[in-house]
């Protein structure tokens, strides 16, 4: 298989994929694809009543992803919809839609279209196993459910939301089970992925480890 200049970062929710992807994109000046946001956008437009055959075109034409400092801002024409997309309501609907074959097929070409010659870092659940099987470097980033729940707890607390740690752990475990046991594109490391368990690593340590992999296999 001809390998293309893509670094895939897959893994369960709250494993730190997004933060790692944004840091790596910044350091190596790569384009970035947060595939989870496409599933959320699909849910957002479907909830507004848009016909499914129109959604991926509308995403391609009307949506702009802006990297501001280390945050990804998502604009729908000139309206900032980042917070709408992060809501629990959209997350739950996106999760439901993500097991639908029609939705996954509709988003496949859109995800591939993020590839540019300068290179791409793509994060999600099936970047290395399905969408970019031909990627030069594949990473599967994971951490224990407790550690991921703690990270999510701090993130939600920072946003001023009330959170309950035991409920978060149960929520994360249920989502893991759902993501890894679904029939289509289940959450799995690709055979040729490097598995990083970040339970006892800081983001800086994960970045450093990834930079070494990039030197060995990507550059
Ligand atoms: O990473 P996230 O929470 O923003 O993803 C939103 C939903 O989309 C999540 O339920 C899993 C799904 N998803 C997927 O099925 N495949 C991907 N490549 C990315 C996300």
Summarize it.
Helix content is 52%, strand content 19%. With 219 residues, it is an alpha/beta fold. The chain has a single domain (6-200), classed as 3-Layer(aba) Sandwich (Rossmann fold), CATH 3.40.50.300.
Which tags fit this structure?
219 residues; alpha/beta; Rossmann fold; five-stranded parallel sheet; three-stranded antiparallel sheet; binds 2'-deoxycytidine-5'-monophosphate
Tell me the CATH topology. Rossmann fold
Report the β-strand fraction as a percent range. 15-25%
Uncertain segments of ≥5 residues (pLDDT<50)? none
CATH-level-2 architecture: 3-Layer(aba) Sandwich
C-alpha termini separation: 18 Å
Global morphology: globular
**H/I helix tally:** 10
Biggest sheet statistics: 5 strands, parallel
CATH class: Alpha Beta
Structural class: alpha/beta
Number of strands: 8
Order of helices and strands: EHEHHEEEHHHEHEHHEH
Give an account of the 3D structure.
The model has no long low-confidence stretch (mean pLDDT 94). The chain has a single domain (6-200), classed as P-loop containing nucleotide triphosphate hydrolases (Rossmann fold, 3-Layer(aba) Sandwich). The chain has a five-stranded parallel sheet. It has a three-stranded antiparallel sheet with strand order 3-4-5. Helix 2 (35-47) crosses helix 5 and helix 3 (52-62) runs parallel beside helix 6. It contains ten helices and eight strands. It is of the alpha/beta class. The protein binds 2'-deoxycytidine-5'-monophosphate (DC). 2'-deoxycytidine-5'-monophosphate binds at residues 13, 35-37, 39-40, 91, 94-95, 98, 124-126.
């Amino acid at each position: 298989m001809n390998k293309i200049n893509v670094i895939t970062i897959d893994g369960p929710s709250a494993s730190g994929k997004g933060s790692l992807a944004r840091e790596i994109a910044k350091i190596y000046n790569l384009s970035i694809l947060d595939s989870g946001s496409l599933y959320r956008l699909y849910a957002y437009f479907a909830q507004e009543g848009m016909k499914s055959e129109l959604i991926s075109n509308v995403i391609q034409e009307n949506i702009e992803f802006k990297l501001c400092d280390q945050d990804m801002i998502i604009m729908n024409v000139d309206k900032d919809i980042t917070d709408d997309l992060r809501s629990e309501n959209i997350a739950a609907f996106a999760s439901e839609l993500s097991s639908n074959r029609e939705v996954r097929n509709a988003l496949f070409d859109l995800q591939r279209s993020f590839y540019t010659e300068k290179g791409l870092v793509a994060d999600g659940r099936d970047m290395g196993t399905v969408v970019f099987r031909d990627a030069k470097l594949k990473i599967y980033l994971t951490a224990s459910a407790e550690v991921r729940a703690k990270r999510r707890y701090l993130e939600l607390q920072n946003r001023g939301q009330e959170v309950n740690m035991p409920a978060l752990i149960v929520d994360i475990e249920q989502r893991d089970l759902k993501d890894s046991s679904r029939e289509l594109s289940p959450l799995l490391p690709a055979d040729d992925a490097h598995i990083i368990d970040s339970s006892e690593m800081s983001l800086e340590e994960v970045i450093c480890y990834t930079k070494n992999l990039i030197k060995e296999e990507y550059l």
